[in-house]
Design a protein that fits this description.
Number of strands: 12
GO molecular function, one term: DNA-binding transcription factor activity
Pfam family, one: HTH_1
Oligomer: single chain
Keywords: DNA-binding, Transcription, Transcription regulation
CATH topology of the largest domain: D-Maltodextrin-Binding Protein, domain 2
Radius of gyration: 32 Å
Largest sheet: 5 strands, mixed
Protein name: DNA-binding transcriptional LysR family regulator
CATH architecture of the largest domain: 3-Layer(aba) Sandwich
Number of helices: 9
Family: Belongs to the LysR transcriptional regulatory family.
Structural class: alpha/beta
Length: 299
């Protein structure tokens, strides 16, 4: 491995351009003897001569011509890469707009992601807003939000090929039953056991995909759910179930996680359905967004 530094390369390129040690030294703001010494040290390190010198002229050797061509191109690439890095860093100084479903449980799982991001990129402003399922989808698609955190069941990814996603936290899809319901005395409960029970669902206006998934799931067990009530958001869903108004199908790690008024019965073989996910638009080229996505991978 040759011990060559960037300064020596710059000195060599200056002499190769001027083909005059005095003029090259002047352009570098150093003395001519110092420049000559550095070129000699470089030639000694390489083991061959770079310039042919005499009293009347300086010219490159064949080896010097090769290095002049290669190193000049490399310096240009180096300068371009630094400029691109500066621009990327400036992008990190902007704002990343984050949306999340209106439940405290979501915040618990995304906090580590943004804690790491803020530690690495303190100059980036992060803004957080809570919205309904519908508002999150609309604001993401129209560019008002850079990234949203929601549940897998709320998105039909086949409808928009500009959307990408990653899982933030795996969650089990469960039957959620109030303990006041006699069925909650059982250790095991399946969807077939609750076919006559009143269901509470998030409004199809707010989450049409979520409602369709639940209806389709019930149909695989041979029944159409008896929907007693549609509610506008997850908070309303939690209160309605806890007060004995019906049962629901939802995640075991969301708003209800520590509510001892409820029992959870996992529904088998439901991959992804209730996972907490991050969703963003592929066309969003923000470097800050890409850095957040990388932090999700470390979660």
């Amino acid at each position: 491995m040759y011990k060559i530094n960037l300064q020596q390369i710059e000195y060599f390129l200056a002499v190769a351009e001027k083909l005059n040690f005095t003029e090259a030294a002047r352009s570098l703001y150093i003395s001519q003897p110092s420049l000559s010494k550095q070129i000699s040290l470089l030639e000694e390190e390489l083991g061959f001569q770079l310039f042919i010198r005499n009293k009347r002229m300086v010219r490159l050797t064949p080896a010097g011509e090769v290095l002049n061509r290669r190193w000049r191109k490399w310096i240009t690439e180096l300068e371009i890469s630094v400029e691109e890095a500066v621009k990327a860093n400036a992008s990190y100084e902007g704002e990343i707009k984050v949306g999340m479903i209106n439940t405290m449980a979501v915040q618990k799982y995304i906090e580590p992601v943004f804690a790491r991001f803020s530690e690495k990129y303190p100059q980036t402003m992060l803004s957080f807003e809570s919205y309904s399922f519908k508002e999150l989808r609309e604001k993401l698609l129209n560019g008002e939000l850079d990234i949203i955190f929601t549940f897998y069941f709320d998105f039909d990814f086949q409808l928009n090929d500009d959307i990408d996603w990653k899982c933030v936290e795996e969650m089990r899809l469960c039957l959620v039953v109030p303990r006041s319901n006699p069925l909650a005395q059982r250790d095991d409960l399946t969807l077939a056991d609750v076919k006559n029970e009143p269901f509470i669902l998030i409004s199809p206006t707010d989450s049409p995909s979520g409602v369709n998934r639940i209806v389709d799931l019930c149909r695989t067990y041979g029944f159409q759910p008896n929907v007693k009530k549609y509610v506008p958001n997850i908070s309303s869903l939690a209160f309605s179930i806890a007060n004995g108004n019906g049962i629901a199908i939802h995640s075991d790690k969301d708003l209800f996680e520590n509510d001892d008024r409820l029992r959870f019965y996992p529904i088998p073989d439901r991959t992804h359905d209730s996972d907490l996910i991050a969703v963003w638009r592929r066309k969003n080229s923000s470097p800050g967004l890409r850095a957040i996505i990388q932090e999700i991978d470390y979660n």
